[in-house]
Amino acid sequence: MSKPDLFPKTSTAGITVDPKTLERVIPESRRPDGTVRKQIKIRPGFTPQEDVSRFRGKRQAQADANTLPKGHILGWTPPPATTAASDAAKSKSAKKNEKRKEKRKEKAAADVAAKIKDNWDDDEEEEVTPKSDGASNVTAKNSKQNEGDALADKLGKLEVR
After folding, report:
1. Which parts of 38-83 fold into alpha helices (H)?
2. Is 108 part of any domain?
3. Chain mean pLDDT for the chain
4. What does the pLDDT look like over 100-149, one tens digit per residue?
5. Containing domain of residue 21, as a range?
6. Which top-rank group of organisms is this from (predicted)?
7. Which of 9, 24, 54, 141 could serve as 42's disulfide partner, Cβ 3.0–4.6 Å?
8. Longest alpha-carbon distance in the chain
């Protein structure tokens, strides 16, 4: 005989199987006033009216068993899973064509990415500076670094109390 479940299933009427005695019982419960109801043993073979299922004829039971799950689409089958065996069965030229196809896809994806990067308006990063003097650009960069260093020194001198 198999062991009973750790958390026995209860029927609609509240009947469970006692794990110690393996008898069908209604477990003890607590009333709203705090008193405890005793555990009630159920005779073998007895089925309370709440647990009696509705009568279904053979055809009705078979129709219920054959019903499709909710959301199922008639005629739809999942696509077959590709296996490694299908790759081994390909000829040499088929493998080459597949590699060429992958390279074309990669190249197309790279072209699209480049177009997006070129067309993207990023006003924050681009600074409009005159290109007449190379020395002015160098001094502007140095002044920004000096400002950053000065700010770092000020933050370093701050005291937190």
Report:
1. 58-65
2. no
3. 81
4. 999 999 999 998 888 887 776 554 555 555 555 555 555 666 676 788 78
5. 1-56
6. Eukaryota
7. 24
8. 103
